[in-house]
Design goal:
The structure is a single chain. By secondary structure, this protein is α/β, with parallel strands linked by helices. The chain is 49% helix and 17% strand. It is built from 17 helices and 10 strands. It has a 7-stranded mixed β-sheet with strand order 6-5-4-7-8-10-9, sandwiched between helices. Helix 3 crosses helix 8.
Length: 360
């Protein structure tokens, strides 16, 4: 039997390493705790309540207003303070809470740049799919059937499995483009393109940014009939004179002729084969000298990042048929469909832009 002095060097390395503090590993391990704290505070209306208050509120006042237990509310408020979403002050009557600037700006429902609806979708839909991430990695396919009991052979039948879910998804898209839209539409000078089709334009948020940046252009949102109906009712008002609608399925129905086709967060939903199929249809419909604008989270060519795009690619695995890609991979898809003079712009934010032309 070996003595204690005969411990293998590998075991010594493990023992020595154990004396360090694995902060990064612990942060990653507990990351979902942060997410769910944020999701819950939004869902319960904590940030909306504090925004509407004329003064800081105590835990007792907040718990009564949101209909929650005092003990649970106190713990939630303190965790949000630790996350720097709330500030806390000690007053004569006790501890009181207020929103931080970021909380009022991004976590309240009435803010023009709110992420509230995106957070709700993350909590109630994406989080549920991610609970089956290991199955998605093993099987190489999305997890709607396990998460929600719905067949995912038709991707958007699964995504829009109820009217409520469709509206949630549209609010998600709306909030994202309210944050990133301006940077994306101005990454290139798109003013020469006057007749623009936004394929899968959803809530119209991207179209609004486009027409604001290029007042001589008109944008037609091409989307499924039920999406167009909801967009007309809830998102695009009659005052948006330069935004129109065209009902259809871009895989099944003919595409109208146009100068520019926008595909924002579309191709990442699909396999390479389906992407080439759709891009080929776009190329055939596009006027000579026109183009296609792809808006996606681009991976670095060596696969080393950015982390956000890497995580989004995992999300495409659990939710769709597609993946995030590199600029070179999108260039190859555009080349295969006949587009030329492909250019790339990095915005420095979540989404980047790829522009390809149809030769005149």
């Amino acid at each position: 039997m070996a003595s204690s002095s005969d411990t293998p060097s590998s075991a010594m390395a493990v023992s020595t390493g154990a004396t360090s503090y694995p902060r990064k590993i612990l942060d990653y391990m507990e990351g979902f705790l942060v997410s769910k704290t944020l999701f819950t505070a939004c869902e319960l209306g904590v940030f909306d309540l504090l925004l509407g208050s004329q003064s800081p509120l105590s835990a007792e006042e907040i718990s009564e207003a949101i209909g929650a237990s005092l003990d649970g509310t106190q713990r939630l408020l303190d965790a949000c303070t630790g996350l720097e979403l709330l500030t806390a002050q000690q007053q004569e009557q006790g501890r009181v809470y207020s929103n931080t600037v970021d909380a009022s700006r991004y976590l309240t429902q009435t803010s023009p740049v709110t992420l509230y609806h995106s957070i709700q979708y993350s909590s109630r839909t994406i989080y549920q799919c991610w609970s089956h991430l290991a199955d998605a990695v093993r099987e190489g396919r999305n997890q709607y059937e396990k998460a929600f009991g719905v067949n995912s052979e038709d991707l958007f039948e699964a995504l829009y499995r109820s009217d409520e879910e469709m509206v949630k998804f549209m609010h998600l898209m709306n909030s994202i483009w309210n944050i990133c839209g301006r940077d994306v539409v101005t990454a290139f000078d798109l003013s020469p393109f006057r007749s623009v089709y936004d394929l899968g334009g959803c809530s119209g948020a991207f179209a609004k940014h486009f027409t604001s940046a290029y007042p001589e252009s008109t944008v037609t949102i091409f989307d499924l009939p039920k999406v167009v109906q909801v967009s007309r009712q809830h998102f695009v008002t009659d005052g948006n004179q330069r935004i129109g609608f065209h009902e259809g399925d871009f895989f099944k129905d003919p595409l109208p002729e146009g100068d520019l086709y926008i595909m924002s967060r579309i191709l990442h939903d699909w396999t390479d084969q389906r992407c080439i199929e759709l891009l080929t249809k776009v190329h055939q419909a596009c006027k000579p000298g026109g183009g296609v604008l792809l808006v996606e989270a681009l991976l670095l060519e060596d696969g080393s990042g950015p982390l956000t795009a890497q995580l989004y690619s995992l999300n495409m695995l659990v939710q769709t048929e597609g993946r995030e890609r590199t600029a070179a991979q999108y260039r190859a898809l555009l080349d295969a469909a006949g587009f030329t003079q492909v250019q790339v712009r990095y915005t420095g934010k979540i989404y980047d832009v790829v522009l390809g032309y149809r030769q005149g």
